[in-house]
Amino acid sequence: MSIDSLKDRIPDYAKDLRLNLGSLLNDVTLSTQQRAGTFIASAIASRNNDVTQAVVAHFRKDLSDEAFAAAQSAAAIMGMNNIYYRFVHMVGGDYAKMPAQLRMNVIKDPGIEKIDFELWCLAVSVINGCDLCVNSHEKVVRAQLGSESVRTAVRIAAITHAVAVTLQSVDALQNM
Q: Is 130 in the active site?
């Protein structure tokens, strides 16, 4: 599936998503690798096969094998961390002082520029709704890349997730 066919499936009531997706595909705020990885990690985190396949088909050429694996790793590790640290943040108490005892080696050595990995972790954390992780990754990204890069990554996450949700509802309603 291509991005164009994906955009064609977005219903008219959600045409703003189609327009936003089109503009973000060519946004120049982020480097090519940063933009591609943000889209791929966000698509994986959005849990929609069609969106993930279309996004990977569109952006895979823009990433080395290491960067593609890192985008996948960002979605995977944040899938774990966002649940754990969201719990810690919600409950508070002694849990914040306890070690997580979860392996997170990829965060130390993602195989690419650390800031790109941080950017992708930020986007995934926004989708997964983990305040603690969003705040942590946002500070690092903002310090190194600036507020515009943070905003662009969050916009990519928001649009990718919204397209995934919209297409999921379209599919569900067609089967009624």
A: yes
Written as one string, the DSSP assignment of 44-113 is HHHT-HHHHHHHHHHHGGGS-HHHHHHHHHHHHHHHHHHHHHHHHHHH-GGGGGS------HHHH--SS-
CATH at 73: 1.20.1290.10
For 157, the domain range is 3-174
> So what's the pLDDT on residue 154?
98
DSSP 8-state assignment for residue 30 = S
Total domains, the chain: 1
The encoded tokens of residue 135 equal 């705040």
Global confidence as pTM: 0.95
Q: Give the mean pLDDT of the chain.
A: 95
Per-residue model confidence as pLDDT tens digits over 53-88 = 999 999 999 999 999 999 999 999 999 999 999 999
Q: What is the mean pLDDT of residues 24-40?
A: 97
Angle between helices 32-46 and 65-91 (to 10 degrees): 50
Q: Is 121 annotated as catalytic?
A: no
Choice among 10, 133, 145, 164 that is catalytic: 133
Q: How far apart are CA 117 and CA 134, in angstroms?
A: 13
Catalytic residue, chosen from 44, 88, 130, 156, is 130
